[in-house]
Amino acid sequence: MQDFSATLYRESGLDIAALADHAAQQRPITKFAAAESIERDSFWGLDCDILLPAALEGQIHAGNTHRIKEKLVVEGANGPTDPVADNILHGKGTLVVPDVLANAGGVTVRYFEWVQDFSSFFWSEDEINQRLVRVMLEAFRAVWQVAQQNCINLRTAAFVVACTRILQARELRGPYP
């Protein structure tokens, strides 16, 4: 785990609940006793299953892709992987779930809120969660299918899906809706 102040590591894994409790008490993560503090740059070479860059843009770039061992990168931040790095990771068999898919839940729920406000009709939390799961799964499946059919990475496939939908809508509606 890494934030602006430190990089924490524990070979057997971090106790996220304990770390959250620690942080909730306004204590710096550098004082979290159940992990060791390591050099910031060491973060990129750690052995783990999934990498979740969730804070800053441009953190994964051509200069550090050779150190990334994970087979799955899920982008929680906006734009943490630059396009060159995305292609390098794809070429070495690392699946990168792009930000446009991985962190789109908040934007999707905000759309649901807008629809509800506009129509003066409100869904329960369970209904919203069910709709969110359906929308996110449909989006992922559409992107995954294009990626597999065209042997391209998920980010490029997401752009292909988006552009195709825009062109289809323009064809149906004309240039001026």
Structure description:
With 177 residues, the chain is mostly helical. The protein contains six helices and five strands, in the order E-H-E-E-E-H-E-H-H-H-H. A three-stranded parallel beta sheet has the order 3-4-5. A two-stranded antiparallel sheet has the order 1-2. Helix 2 (83-91) links the parallel strand 4 and strand 5. 18% of the residues are buried.
Order of helices and strands: EHEEEHEHHHH
Name the beta content range.
Answer: 5-15%
Mean pLDDT: 93
What sort of overall outline do the alpha carbons produce when their principal axes are compared? globular
Distance between the termini: 47 Å
Parts with pLDDT < 50 across at least 5 consecutive residues = none
* Structure class: mainly alpha
Characterize the biggest β-sheet: 3 strands, parallel
Q: What percentage of residues falls in helices of 4 or more residues?
A: 40-55%
The total of helices stands at 6
The multimeric state of the shown protein is single chain
**How many strand segments?**
5
Radius of gyration: 20 Å
Strand order of the largest sheet: 3-4-5
Quick overview of this protein structure:
The protein has 177 residues and is mainly alpha-helical. 47% of the residues lie in helices and 8% in strands.
